[in-house]
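Hey, I'm writing a tutorial for new members on how sequence and structure tokens pair up, and I'd like a real worked example in the thread rather than a made-up one. If someone can provide the structure for the chain below, I'll link this post from the tutorial.
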Amino acid sequence: MYPHLAHVFVDGASLRKRAQEFDRELVNPRKLADALVQRLQDWAAIPSSGANTVLGRVTYYDAKPDDGTTTAPELAEYWSAVELLPDTQLGFGALRGLNRKTPRQKGVDTLIAVDMLVGAFSGLFDVAVLVASDADFVPVVEEVKRRGVMVAVASLSTGLSDDLRRIADRFIEIGPAVDPAPRFFPKLDVSGKTFRLPRTA
């Protein structure tokens, strides 16, 4: 019997915000995905099999300015590095209200929801790992589970929707404070270069 196939869906803006808050390097989503899938090896375990769950694909979602504003060079360079990671792709929504204190993402949650639902209905994966904390994902997780897919949610415990944690089959805490932090908040290192954005309050 073949191992279960996992796809990991990463709300990149959320991780980026956390990295800035903690004054940490931006995350390597592929290494994070590897660590998360390793935590799920006991799901529907097959006796005598090797790896029970294997990582198929990672999709990292973020938002670009929709008003013609240029993306910060450091962030654009980070996205380019993420795109070069094995079996990793980018998905972009729009970033609006850049003249406000807190700009808003548009379309990112929808992209994640559509990709999770289409993948579940098409049988593209057996396990979906959602790296996000927003309660808006609760109906999506419910529907994906109805298709027989196991759904794990990975997030910092602070700011996590109680409903999202409750509806997930598994919850995995990630972030700089988690021990071992490098495994669950690994920095992206490309030939000794890491990526860091100015710290936020």
